[in-house]
Structures are given as structure tokens and as C-alpha cells.
Amino acid sequence: MLKTARALSWWAAIPPLTAIVLVLAWGRPLSNPAIVLVAAALIAAVVVAVHHAEIVAHRVGEPFGTLILAIAVTVIEVGLIIMLMTSAGSGPSPLARDTVFAAFMIVCNGVVGLCLLVGALRHREVEFHVEGVTAALATLSAVATLALVLPSFTISAPGPTYSGPQLAFAGVASLVLYASFVFVQTVRHRDYFLPVDTGEDHHADPPTRKAAVLSLVLLLVCLVVVVGLAKIEAPAIEKAVVAVGAPHAVVGVAIALLVLLPETAAAVRAASRNRVQTSFNLALGSALASIGLTIPSLAVASIWLPNTLILGLSPKDMVLLAITLIVTVLTVAPGRATLMQGMVHLTLFGVFLFLSFVP
């Protein structure tokens, strides 16, 4: 009991500490040690934000819990994208496209592959509800194509971009699809997204109402801190990418990896307990929220942003998107999977990472 209380006190102490770092660093020139401290505070705020989102999610139960996690991650992602875009000045910006595409590839190949591998190694074969997973995958395929593929083929605006009316329509369509999925997931067909009964009871006692409310408050603090620290850290991130000679798309990969790291840990833990349905809810729900909520948010923000949103993927990335969707469909179609499917997804994830650095 003492150990648990001590751990909770640490999780509760980090948000105020990171908020203090934000206040002290805001509007001041920073030395290299200070930049490192801000980066550490930013990472800590992201990790702790998702931790507190998990506590709230555990209190409300499945599948509402995974929905809360997905929305929290998306708020962090949108905040990071907007702060980095405004820091880069005016002009065309592919950062939103790079981050959303990276989140899609990380989730659908990295997270899904790791969960299947861990679950299959421990339980030999894992099971999940085909109805729920395919519903998420169908919605994800539609919003990914709408946000990342079609802009490369429209002709109303030059380049792989949407015109103003097209971006507004894409944002509304993405939001409608996401809202429809949430309705199906939480109301109409909620049972499709509940974990498969494997005969094992791994349920921990839910947190108290007081603990959940405290975590909700600390989650909101962390979200504000993440956006503020990202604004401060943005110039250093850009300089680091230029210094190592990496393509600019690596910035988007770094943002997506940072944001999705804690949620990946939660999905893998669920897979190790033979609750792969929960892992899929987390993974595919995050990818869907990353596109279905990020694009509408950026469509609204583009009214004030000085940047033109470059959304259309290159032919190389379209190939990776297409093969990922095809492989994922083949993976989930039987309703069960082995480590072979996990290895295929992880290999595709490795290809994505390699080509991000060596395009």
C-alpha cells in the first residue's frame, strides 16, 4: 500500500514540476543545458499525460477508456504540430502530413505487430472480434485516403494540397466518420469492442472516483504544458534535424513516436494479458483519432496559421500506405492471429523507418 501511494505521489508531482519549467522557460533565451531540461520536461509531460488518461479510462471502463486515451493523444499531437508549424514561419508545411502518416504507420505496423508478437509468444494464438476491428479498419482506410492520398490528385490548388473549400469538406467528412465510429463503438455495437472472453480474469480494481478526478485535472495540466514546452523546444528540434542531415520528415516521425510511446506500452501490456481486442482498440483507435480529429482541427487552425498544409503523400509513401492496409485486412480477417502476422507488420514498420531516413 505504501509503495502504491508513493508511486501515485510521483505521478501527481510531475505535472506541477513540468508546469514550473514552462513558466521559467517561457519567453527567455535558453542555453544548451536549459534546452535539454525543457526536452526532458516535455517527454515527462507526454508520458504522465497518457498515464493519467489511463487512470481515467480504467475508471470509466471499456471501450470508453480507449476513446479517452485516443483523444488525449490527439490533443497532444495537434498541439505539437501547430506549435512547430508556427515556429517555422510562413510557407508550405508538410509537418502535419508527415506526423499523421508516421502515426498511421507506427500504429498499424509497429504497435499492432508488437502486440501480436508479444501476445502470440505468450499465448501461442490470440483472438479478437472481427466485427469491431474491421469497423475500425474500414473507417481508418476511408479517412486516410481522404486526408493523405486525394490531395495529390486534386487540381483546384497547386501541389499536393487542398483548396480552402476542399480542406473544409475533408475536415467535416473526417469528423463525421470518426463520430459515427465512436457511436458504434460506445453505443450501438459496444459488444464488438469488448475483450474476447479467454477464461482468464486480469481485471484490476478500478481507481476511486477521487483518484480519477485528480488524474483528470492533472491530465489537463499536462496537455497545456506539452503545448507550451513544444513551442519552446521547436527551434531546437529543427536545428537538430538539420545538424544530423536527416530529411525534414523525420520531425514528424519523432513527434509521432514521442506521442504514441506511452500508449504503445499500454497496448503491449494488454496483449501480454491475452486481451488483444483492447490492444486493437488502443492502436486502431489512436490511428483513427490521429487522422479523424487532427485533420478537422488543422482545417480550423489553417484560418489563422500562416502555412499552407501539404497533405498529399509521395508515391513511395502511398505504396507503404496501400500495402499496410492490405496486410492489416488479411491479418484481422480470420479473427485470430499468430506471431507470423506480427513479424510481417514489424518488418513493414522497419521498412518505413529506414526509408524515412534514407528516402
Helix-strand string:
HHHEHEHHHHHHEHEH
Oligomer: single chain
CATH top level? Mainly Alpha
Summing up helix and strand content along with how strands pair, one would put the structural category as mainly alpha
If you average the pLDDT, what whole number results?
82
Helix content range of the residues, please? over 70%
Q: What is the annotated CATH architecture?
A: Up-down Bundle
The description of the largest β-sheet is: 2 strands, parallel
- Tell me the total number of β-strands: 4
The best one-word shape is globular
Computed CA radius of gyration, to the nearest angstrom: 20 Å
Distance between the termini: 52 Å
Overall number of structural domains: 1
Strand content is: under 5%
**Strand order within the widest beta sheet:** 1-3
- What are the segments in which pLDDT stays under 50 over at least 5 consecutive residues? 1-7
Give the CATH topology: A middle domain of Talin 1
Task: Specify the CATH homologous superfamily.
Answer: NCX, central ion-binding region
> How many distinct helices?
12
